[in-house]
Request: fold
Amino acid sequence: MGKISEEYIEQAERDLLHTYNRFHLVLDRGEGVYLYDIEGKKYLDFVAGIAVFALGYGDKVYNDALKGQVDKLLHTSNYYYNVPAVEAARKLKAFSGMDRVFFTNSGAEAVEGAIKTARKYGFLKDGRTDHEIIAMEHSFHGRTMGALSVTGNAHYREAFEPGIGNIRFATYNDYESVASLVNDRTIAILMETVQGEGGLTPASEDFLKKVRALCDEKGLLLILDEIQCGMGRTGYNFAWQRYGVKPDVMTCAKALGCGVPVGAFLMTEEVGQHSLVAGDHGTTYGGNPLACTAISTVLDRYEALHLTDHVREVAPYLEQRLDELVSRYDFILERRGTGLMQGLVLDHPVADTINAALEKGLILINAGPNILRFVPPLVIEKQHVDEMIDILDSCLQ
Ligand SMILES: *Cc1c(COP(=O)(O)O)cnc(C)c1O
Reply:
């Protein structure tokens, strides 16, 4: 690490609240699927800002659209209409098959909105205010109080209890554990379609179909968190589209803005007609013209680049190359995940491997202490997979 980087890191550790153990890397600019640090060193990026920068860095259409909107109008209140928001909503509906959209500033806020939607839906249904939501163990939904309350990692919650209350945790991919928690106060079942932070675990088809049927039978809302696994990452616009089930409420963020901080929660018309109304929910920035220009242009670029199809082409190759590593090294226990959302489970902590990869110009991240996570820009090609595998292989040897 160079002297300039060292100085910035020292200053950062003096001034920023230490809520992250950061890698010693000061990133400066990006180009395609590569990032450069402030000393000019080049890195192949297999993190994409944690499943955010789907388009790669420097997409000219996207950058020009943002620049144009900066000069035109950055912000206006949600008390007025703006064209980028109308366009973004229309395109996101078509992309997702959902009916109603609320734009937020982040993933956690999208989860908050989904929780409020479920509580209001329940309130209108029977006037009670003690409805329960069933969430999953090992889930991750964000760091704000509501999102934290449904996050199935006791360590993240411990110091901040009590949470919002009336949340129960079931075992992911275990239908009986979900069904056994349903009672007359239950109003919704919430899960990631593919668990991200929790270890790159997809919902099994059998599990998701049974939970959907349970929701239909009992009049519960199925809320799917697609913040990490959505937006084409699994080779489907949204991961649930693979299963032949549809959620009642869905959250989205990360790649939705490709770097501009945005999120959204979406719902069916049925839920839209029986939940949040004027005065129930709001945001100053959410859905502003800059944010919605980002969303609208991202969705245009997905279409123009056939990005979801591209994932289906390149992901099997990534799986094949990762599987080769699994068979070559005894200490790699398994590969997990789907599409361009993959993990390698090691029998020991992965921090040293990640640091060694950084030294050699490859950016990787973990999911929990023992899992290497691969969530690259969706525009990667096979040659980038090979380049990544070569570096990783040399770090594993
Ligand atoms: C990242 C993530 C969130 C939280 O999103 P933020 O934008 O960080 O608030 C919620 N759910 C899932 C599945 C995520 O991966």
Q: What stands out?
A: The chain has a mean pLDDT of 97. The chain has 14 helices and 17 strands. The radius of gyration is 21 Å.
